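Dear colleagues,

As part of the handover before I leave the project, I'm documenting each prediction I ran so the next person doesn't have to rerun anything. This entry is a single chain, and its sequence is reproduced below.
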Amino acid sequence: MAHFLSTGDSRLAAGARIILPAVWLGLIIGISLIEAPLKFTAPGITIPLGLGIGRLVFGVMNWVELVIGVILLWAMLKNGVGRAYRSVASGLLAVLIIKVVVIRPLLNRRTDAVLAGIDDGGSALHLFYIAADGLLIVGLVAALVLAVRRWVTIRPQ
């Protein structure tokens, strides 16, 4: 186990650079692109109920994304990682931080206002969250391509 935690590149870090973007991509597709829009079409789901479910689901999703991001950061800092992968992974982490630290709190305040009956719920803030997820999707696909290409190139035959 100590070998996997050493300063050089390891199979664990190389695997993490492939698996983590794939899991993260699946998470965004499953929650942001499938669950969130469909939730409001389910029978009996009211706006307050949908917002409450969404807040819970996206809150947990963002924590999972942060954990994935921290592990990906560790895997990115290992030796043997190309400049392109470092750039893409750094961009992913920057977008994630903006999404979680800036956009989510603003959306939470809007949700509070809607639930309190102060606001009608129409907001362009959701477009920023969607844009952040769009950037993450593009970046995660790029990270996967770069990581798999590198793995295939250096893998012993």
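Confidence is low (pLDDT under 50) at residues 1-7. The chain has four helices and no strands.

All the best with the project,
I.
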